[in-house]
Every structure is written in structure tokens, then in C-alpha cells.
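SEQUENCE, C-ALPHA CELLS:
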Amino acid sequence: MKINSRVGLIVIIVVIVAALAGMYMVYSRQGAERSQLNEKLDTAQTRQAGLAASKTDLQGQLAQAQSSLNSSQVQFPASVESIEYGEYLFEIAERCNLQLATLSFPRPAARTVGSVTCSVVSLSLPVSGTLENIFKFIDLIRTDPRFASTQVNSVNLNVGGGSAVIAVDIYGYKG
């Protein structure tokens, strides 16, 4: 019986040692996994801080772009109303003591400026009067807030006859 109890004791010791070795292996694997997860967590927290700063920066850029877009849209009329612009042009010509011979509004054409598509009306303005008044007329078109979206393309002066043909483009925003 002594052999059996010794064998039993050895078997129990071997089982306990095997159980302890198995537990040690599981614990060491969990420790390695825990350290990997901690490294990943540290990396994620570092990235999260950088991404939060980027998000704040991008939100600021978006707000600035929205503000710029809104202020740009204010300068461009939603559409070019020929009657209104005709009245404005005749009013400015009268203020400058000029005769605006004829005025015809063609259909607006689409034109891309940068990445924005605008409707554009190209006009030819035949005026007659003194050179000083013609220059005053051009200056008023360039500075009048109603013509903020207008570009003077060319001026053909007839110095001897006191007349000019002024080519302008009036831009409207196509939303």
C-alpha cells in the first residue's frame, strides 16, 4: 500500500504542478495581451487627441468657407433681371448726362468661374456725350453696389464724336 500512496502522492503533485504550469502560461499570455492592448489604447488616445484638434481646425475652415460663400453670394444677384438693370443703366446714364442709345438684353449664358457656375449677360452699351461723362459713367458702373457683380470688359472710344461702346458682363449666381 505504501507504493500506491506514494504513486498517488506523486500523481497529485504532478497534477498540481501541471495545473500551476497551465495557469502560469494562461496568466503570462493574458499579461502579454494586456500590454499589447495598453499600447493600442495609448496609440488610439494619441490619435484621438490629434483628430480632435484636426476636427476643430476643419470646423473653423468650414465656418470660414461658409462665411466666404455667403458674402460672395450677397455680391451676386440670384438672377439678372433685365428690366431692373436696364432701369439702373438708364438712371446712371442720365446722372452722367449721357445718352444711352439702345439697350437689349440677350438671354443669360452659363459660364464657369473657378468651380462656380454663373449666369452671365453680356451687354454692349452705346453711349454719347463728353469724354469726362463717359469716364464718369464707367466709374459709376464699377463702383455702384447694384453692379457689384459686373465686369467692364472693353471700352471703344470715338474721341472725335464723343461716343463710346462699353462692353460689360453682369454675373448672376446659379444656386
User: Anything to note?
Assistant: The two ends are 101 Å apart (CA to CA). Residues 5 and 11 are 10 Å apart (CA to CA).
